[in-house]
Amino acid sequence: MFNFSGDGGDFFSRRCVWVNGPVIVGAGPSGLAVGACLREEGVPFVVLEKADCIASLWQKRTYDRLKLHLPKQFCQLPKYPFPDHFPEYPTKKQFIDYLESYAKKFDINPQFNECVQSAKYDEACGLWRVKTVSISGSEVEYICQWLVVATGENAECVVPEIEGLKEFSGEVLHACEYKSGEKFTRKRVLVVGCGNSGMEVSLDLCNHNAKPSMVVRSSVHVLPREFFGTSTFELAILMMKWLPLWLVDKILLILARLILGNTEKYGLKRPSVGPMELKNTQGKTPVLDIGALQKIRAGNVKVVPGIKRFSCDMVELVNGEKLEIDSVVLATGYRSNVPYWLQETEFFSNNGFPTGWKGKAGLYAVGFTRKGLSGASSDAMRISQDIGKVYKEDLKQKKQKVPCHRRCISTF
Ligand SMILES: Cc1cc2nc3c(=O)[nH]c(=O)nc-3n(C[C@H](O)[C@H](O)[C@H](O)COP(=O)(O)OP(=O)(O)OC[C@H]3O[C@@H](n4cnc5c(N)ncnc54)[C@H](O)[C@@H]3O)c2cc1C
Ligand SMILES: NC(=O)C1=CN([C@@H]2O[C@H](COP(=O)(O)OP(=O)(O)OC[C@H]3O[C@@H](n4cnc5c(N)ncnc54)[C@H](OP(=O)(O)O)[C@@H]3O)[C@@H](O)[C@H]2O)C=CC1
Ligand SMILES: O=C(O)C(=O)Cc1c[nH]c2ccccc12
């Protein structure tokens, strides 16, 4: 890394930094995995992170009782397995501790509190210009040959505009702000959404003697987390190697029916597309049940249809029913933030999701394949090998020839 100008000088308002290697945007599991693999390839890099810590989604935007819902072998990052004593489904704390030691082991030291505001490929010099702003308002421009986008599928909360929600007088929070049901004891809470967040928040609310109603406006696939001791995810992955997707889905649904019974009778209508096909085509993750269904069966979680409007202390549903409620948890999902800052529309064309792991002109994406942490690990290995090859070739040529520095003209 090389500074072109002093920090906060009278003349220069923006510092300009040349990075010899890739800039990685995001220090979540994906960014850390790329960093670790690049370290092993001997490629230097810079990681830019808008939060003040690694894995901010896990550290700051998830609830206390969260556990990984896929078995541990699908969630560990490359080149450094989970410790043997970890349970099959590590807790949030165990996962964060693992990520902290991962960053330490591979000597990954992100530039914290630096939010990428824009990134643009400069055709004139054939390099990426990545502009960041810190909380103190100081700006930096990083210039590099490779840009790795690792900002995640869950970068922004989706907060829907629902009629009357602004007039509602109780607390309204997104699932990413929900920590525990402790403060909701005996309260009537409307949980909007029935993905894994909605289901697990409803379960946690029940465990704290709150009274949740969960909105199911369309449909949802609920699967048991395990079938006869084997994880559903593992079974699905195994079957997908040999069988067509439609057949895998059929088998999963037959097994789910066998173990969970008919979930439609509780208001949990199933989508017409099968669970794995839906995940692959639309990114909608099936719910892996860890106990919410039992609470629904027992009537501790009330399943309700879509919302018509809110008023001061009430919600009116599409079926005309009115519920008095104290609080609202919006478990309405997440979206990518890439369209807000990456000035590129070919590779990241689809709502901030890329078309693969490698774009043009040194642009890469890690952790957007809708395959969870295991997808991020495979992306990271591919990307680092790809960059490593070119980096080492460049290095060899530079050693052989008279040094030829790229020139970059910055405009401050
Ligand atoms: C509640 C919850 C539970 C989950 N559980 C599992 C699970 O059990 N198994 C599984 O496989 N997957 C799970 N997932 C999926 C999740 O996507 C992955 O676990 C993982 O966090 C993805 O890592 P990531 O690095 O791609 O994204 P993130 O973890 O979101 O990290 C992205 C980082 O980029 C930073 N960033 C974003 N924008 C900018 C910017 N403009 N400038 C600088 N930095 C920026 C963020 O602050 C963040 O630290 C879960 C997701 C959620 C929400
Ligand atoms: N233990 C774990 O490992 C956990 C993992 N996760 C993961 O995090 C990711 C995000 O999950 P999640 O936060 O549940 O988000 P999802 O996108 O999976 O679910 C969002 C839910 O909100 C509903 N919704 C959105 N807008 C509205 C609205 N205006 N009115 C009513 N309902 C609405 C959606 O309904 P519709 O389908 O009709 O659009 C859907 O049911 C997933 O990949 C999930 O697997 C989450 C929690 C725990
Ligand atoms: O937890 C998530 O969000 C994941 O993306 C993990 C995941 C990837 N593919 C799946 C298929 C079924 C259930 C979870 C996942």
UniProtKB/TrEMBL annotation:
The keyword Oxidoreductase applies. Its cofactor is FAD. Its EC number is 1.-.-.-. It comes from the Eukaryota. Pathway: Plant hormone metabolism; auxin biosynthesis. Keywords: Auxin biosynthesis, FAD, Flavoprotein, Monooxygenase, NADP, Oxidoreductase. InterPro entries: Auxin_biosynth/cation_transpt (IPR050982), FAD/NAD-bd_sf (IPR036188), Flavin_mOase-like (IPR020946). The keyword NADP applies. It is an enzyme of class 1 (oxidoreductase). GO terms for molecular function: flavin adenine dinucleotide binding; indole-3-pyruvate monooxygenase activity; N,N-dimethylaniline monooxygenase activity; NADP binding. It catalyses: indole-3-pyruvate + NADPH + O2 + H(+) = (indol-3-yl)acetate + CO2 + NADP(+) + H2O. GO terms for biological process: auxin biosynthetic process. Belongs to the FMO family. This is Flavin-containing monooxygenase.
